[in-house]
Amino acid sequence: MNLARLSLIFALALAGVVGVGVYVWAGCGACGPAAAPSGAKLDIATTTPFSVLDVTGPAKGEKLCYICRYGGRPSVVLFTRTTTGHLVDLVKAVDKFVADHKEQRAAAFVVLLGENSAANREALAKLAADHKLSIPLTIAADGAKGPSAYKLDPACATLALVANKNKVEAAFTVKCDAASCDNAQCSPAADVVAAADRLIAGH
For residue 94, what is the domain's CATH number? Predict the structure, then answer.
């Protein structure tokens, strides 16, 4: 285990004490340095309600607010600009986390930051079918910019928020120039799930 990894784990442990932890994953050697804690501040303290088009979930084809539907349950919200690469490992891990914590009413959903196009809907449907995903895959009603309350960074490929009672407890961003990169170092899956596990343990 390298120093950057140890530093990240230590920072994650502190997140539950000092507030929201923000971590930037720059990606693999082709995309940037190894994962490390970020000094950046993320102005997302709560999971503010917003609308999405449900593509694969129980409300398939409808517009709704999953933040509202989940009602403060322990949740992971994934904002992303890709349906391939690092996202696959991440969404599979989060889907398993939700399945493993049904008794604790864990929840999650994916928000694709893009237009409501046939191509995007098909890409999400394929992702769900290929990996037998149960969590809803959706498209942001606000398009590529995403919900304004979140002030999403256009340079960020993926943002994972770990929240309970609508309070964001930890956040992870992937800033990878290669959206289709499938190197495991580009995915914060293990650490997102670890943060969610800690949230469940203290729930």
Answer: 3.40.30.10
